[in-house]
């Protein structure tokens, strides 16, 4: 399923808003998407007319729920669904051409700001940014492909800046710097939702396009780029082919990031050598610091981290991430106190994760009200709070102080921060005292049946 097919699918189901008025990429489209999100409208939004960009359409709000995983059967648990497919990759296939090659523009004289309706998202942003485009590159030593989403600042002419904080591209650019050579990159916009989602899953050493094939149930078609040695999705909407220069470190920003704050970072300067696209491209946007970005980032990490935790700790029952994967809530079957310490230590040693809350099986990790209830009623603040200092944090955490590139973590860019672990489980020797009030289970099941019957016949 391509992005266009997905848009058509949403339209058929009444889950697409088509807006006929003209909207500007500078703030107006961002404002419209944010207003609709605030109102709780979980529909994709298609902007039919984009000011200054005749022939372009823009689509957003595609990831507000899990419907984009259209291959999943309705009632199947998403973790089970992912696990069944995770280890059965379907490699991409190379094809001769595709819709993304319908229009080809040489990089000489290219004016990116005129060619692409990249959004200016926030009031103090330094300019237009790509926030939902997948970057593809190859390891300069091995030729192995790497994929990820990294923010791209559009500058004058064919110039760009790319902020690369996470693997595998953080490793690739470091190797290119050591080899004193540029890094070839392809920046792809307008991928189908499952392929884009797969690019976010934290698997720096694996082929994320093969994972996308597994989740979609069919191989992803790739086509050779025009000017660089990189293969790109043939059915995407727009491809920018270019190079990054590891020795050209430039100040990038301010830009309003996913954590809700403006950041100025050191990024890599680059040039675009060619642009290919469809004749009538649909530019896909994802708003930073939004329910949409929360949903896809948290879900991507949750699926992969749950799998790893279950392999290492069989007492883990559920995992839920919040705040762009900086906060992890873990439900366990508690049998001894050491289990809590093991989970907290394990997760806080990882980059990005800043806080860990461990709860019992009677706490729903998807319900913030229950999580706060467990914290305020089960935590002894004298002994159940754990602080871990000088740990690798999130590159866009405003509490971070300075950055360092950690070789053991693929040269990811991380600040050193203090992290917190919270034991919100029942005291091991006082389980009865902390038993949660409830109606007998047999009665709940009986009344569920009665209510379902009433709904079908009277409501």
**Rg over alpha carbons:** 23 Å
Low-confidence stretches: none
What is the highest CATH level, the class of the largest domain?
A: Mainly Beta
**Strand runs, count:** 22
Reported for the largest beta sheet, the result is:
9 strands, antiparallel
List the helices and strands and how they pair.
Layout (H helix, E strand, L loop, with lengths): L2 H10 L3 E8 L4 H11 L5 E7 L6 E4 L17 H9 L6 E2 L8 E4 L5 H4 L13 E2 L3 E5 L6 E5 L2 E3 L4 E4 L6 H11 L3 E7 L3 H8 L7 H9 L4 E4 L6 E3 L4 E19 L5 E16 L4 E3 L6 H22 L3 E7 L4 E6 L5 H11 L6 E5 L8 H11 L6 E8 L8 E6 L5 E12 L17 H18 L1
Short description:
The chain has 459 residues and is an alpha+beta fold. The chain has helices at residues 3-12, 28-38, 78-86, 112-115, 169-179, 193-200, 208-216, 291-312, 338-348, 368-378, 441-458; strands at 16-23, 44-50, 57-60, 93-94, 103-106, 129-130, 134-138, 145-149, 152-154, 159-162, 183-189, 221-224, 231-233, 238-256, 262-277, 282-284, 316-322, 327-332, 355-359, 385-392, 401-406, 412-423. It is globular, with a radius of gyration of 23 Å.
């Amino acid at each position: 399923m391509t992005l266009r097919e997905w848009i058509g699918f949403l339209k058929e189901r009444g889950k697409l808003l088509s807006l006929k008025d003209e909207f500007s990429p500078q703030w107006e489209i961002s404002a419209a998407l944010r207003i609709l999100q605030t109102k709780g409208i979980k529909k994709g939004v298609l902007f039919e007319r984009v000011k200054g960009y005749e022939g372009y359409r823009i689509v957003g709000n595609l990831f507000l729920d899990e419907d984009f995983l259209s291959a999943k059967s309705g009632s199947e648990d998403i973790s089970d669904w992912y696990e069944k497919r995770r280890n059965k990759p379907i490699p991409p296939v190379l094809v001769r051409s595709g819709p993304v090659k319908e229009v080809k523009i040489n990089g000489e004289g290219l004016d990116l700001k005129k060619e692409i309706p990249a959004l200016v998202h926030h009031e103090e942003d330094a300019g237009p940014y790509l926030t939902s485009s997948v970057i593809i590159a190859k390891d300069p030593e091995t030729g192995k492909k790497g994929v990820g989403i990294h923010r791209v600042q559009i500058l004058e002419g064919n110039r760009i800046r790319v902020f690369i904080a996470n693997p595998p591209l953080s490793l690739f650019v470091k190797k290119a710097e050591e080899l004193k050579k540029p890094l070839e990159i392809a920046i792809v916009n307008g991928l189908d939702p499952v392929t884009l989602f797969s690019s976010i899953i934290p698997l720096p050493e694996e082929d994320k396009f093969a994972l996308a094939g597994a989740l979609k149930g069919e191989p992803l078609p790739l086509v050779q780029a025009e000017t660089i040695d990189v293969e790109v999705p043939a059915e995407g909407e727009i491809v920018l082919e270019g190079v990054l220069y590891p020795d050209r470190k430039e100040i990038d920003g301010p830009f309003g990031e996913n954590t809700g704050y403006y950041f100025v970072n050191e990024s890599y300067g680059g040039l675009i050598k060619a642009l290919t696209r469809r004749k009538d491209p649909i530019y896909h946007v994802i708003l930073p610091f939004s329910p949409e970005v929360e949903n896809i980032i948290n879900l991507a990490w949750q699926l992969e981290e749950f799998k790893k935790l279950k392999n290492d700790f069989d007492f883990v029952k559920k995992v839920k991430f919040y705040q762009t994967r900086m906060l992890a809530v873990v439900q366990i079957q508690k049998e001894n106190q050491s289990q809590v310490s093991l989970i907290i230590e394990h997760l806080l040693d990882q980059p990005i994760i800043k806080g860990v809350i461990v709860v019992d099986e009677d706490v729903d990790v998807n319900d913030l009200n229950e999580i706060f209830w467990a914290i305020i009623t089960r935590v002894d603040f004298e002994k159940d709070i754990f602080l871990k200092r000088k740990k690798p944090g999130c590159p866009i955490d405003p509490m971070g102080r300075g950055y360092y590139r950690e070789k053991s973590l693929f040269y990811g860019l991380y600040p050193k921060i203090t992290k917190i672990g919270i034991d919100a489980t029942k005291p091991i020797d006082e389980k009865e005292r902390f038993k949660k009030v409830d109606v007998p289970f047999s009665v709940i099941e009986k009344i569920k049946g009665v209510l379902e019957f009433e709904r079908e016949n009277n409501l």
